[in-house]
Give the backbone structure.
Amino acid sequence: MKYSIDKEPKYILLKFHEERLDATVSPEVKATFISLNAEGMRNLVLDLSEVKYVDSSGLSALLIANRLCSDAGGSLILAALTDHVMKLIKISQLEKVLTLLPTVEEAVEHIFMTELENDLRAGQEDVEDE
């Protein structure tokens, strides 16, 4: 599987350099997500701009990433989806479960806004506890 990873302080950007996210690559994709989670990943942005096809095993890998991020108190954002991939996600009704944004930039902004909200919420709880 070909991909690039950009590790930032608040998020990890993973860009797939594959046209297919299917049964041939999904075991490696899942292992990558699990490994990143073990390293402390909370927020993950997936750039799917080069992915033209996703099958059920690819969707399963995305759901695993979503659960791992959620369990860690973070977010998974799918960005720059091609029309075909977007159609498959909508047919599967996963747009109700997954966060989908048109661009990587918007995904990164969403992560920062969510982290800011979490920090503010934590600060309010600290004040209430005193």
About this structure: The chain has four helices and seven strands.
